[in-house]
Amino acid sequence: VTDTAAAPAAKTPTLPDAQTVTEVKHWTDRLFSFRCTRPASLRFRSGEFVMIGLMGDNGKPLLRAYSIASPSWDEELEFYSIKVPDGPLTSKLQHIEPGDQIILRPKPVGTLVHDALLPGKRIWFFATGTGFAPFASLLRDPQTYEDYEEVIITHTCREVGELEYGKELIDSIRQDELLAELIGEGFADKLRYYPTTTREESPKMGRITDLMRKGEVFEDLGVAPLSPEHDRAMVCGNLAFNLEIKDMLEEYGLQEGANSNPKHYVVEKAFLD
Ligand code: A2P
Predict the structure, then answer these.
(1) Is 47 in the pocket of ligand 1 (CB under 6 A)?
(2) Is the CB of 204 under 6 A from ligand 1?
(3) Which of 2.30.42.10, 1.20.140.10, 2.40.30.10, 2.40.480.10 is the CATH number of 6-109?
(4) How many whole angstroms from 135 Cα to the centroid of ligand 1?
(5) What is the Rg, in whole angstroms, of the alpha carbon atoms belonging to the chain?
(6) Which among 4, 32, 174, 243 has most CB atoms closer than 10 A?
């Protein structure tokens, strides 16, 4: 009891850019999320990613790009990850526990930011799999609701269990009193959630791309198909999905934007290890 200095010393980071894991949740055998401490110096825009990882067996940091899933006002950071059995990083990262350290390079970058889009009426967030992560940040950012009249998030996964992280997040946002206070009580009505599965039965089955081609999405949500006049979009998923939906957005007349040249939509690859 007299030697209280020993406890904090044991927690002193020894890795370069070390942060301490505070919480880990396993959602399925393929998916987990975790939270960690946030460097005091880290400022980021919702939707951006950072390099995180672990020390490799060769003594060199093994890093990958991870979207920050937490909002910029959160005092901790949250990440949502796949577990790949033979993935160089995730085969190890999936075993982290509270108190463990990870490496986090505090240099956020990325294209899925509000600054890369022109003002519009409705924003679409299109995600597959772990591509939901940047939207978990953007959906908790008051600016998303201040900038748009309507916010639509679609999430396509193979199985129902893979939707759970997103579903719980949407539920918590709808009940978030702080967001309600910041942007007004009605903000939750602006948020539309459209989950679909492709390999396990659920209320809405099919790839979002196919459901858009058939017009089913627009019918279900009671909105017109996308137009450059009203609609803005952010896309994050696997490569084939990104390419396919990009073509579709171009067919609707939307053009790809960038930080330096804001337009109608932006795309980023979900992390797959
Ligand atoms: P599918 O089961 O038909 O391949 P993954 O887990 O492999 O990253 O896939 C996540 C989700 O993205 C799956 O539901 C998958 O559907 C879907 N998907 C894969 N490729 C495309 C694509 N080109 N367009 C739309 N959805 C896709």
Answers:
(1) no
(2) no
(3) 2.40.30.10
(4) 18
(5) 19
(6) 32
Paired residues of 205 in beta bridges: 197
Shortest-distance atom of ligand 1 to CA 199: 2
- pTM score, two decimals? 0.94
DSSP state letter for 224: P
For 127-156, letters b (16+ CB in 10 Å) and e give bbbbbbbbbbbbbbbbebbebbebbbbbbb
Does the beta carbon of 157 lie inside 6 Å of ligand 1? Answer: yes
Q: Note the pLDDT of residue 6.
A: 47
Rounded Cα distance, 263 and 254, in Å: 8
Tokens of 192: 């539309």
pLDDT digits (tens, 9 = 90+) for 232-262: 999 999 999 999 999 999 999 999 999 999 9
Cβ(129) – ligand 1 distance below 6 Å: yes
Q: Which residue has the tokens 């759970």?
A: 164
CA distance 79 to 92: 15
Strand partners, 64: 52
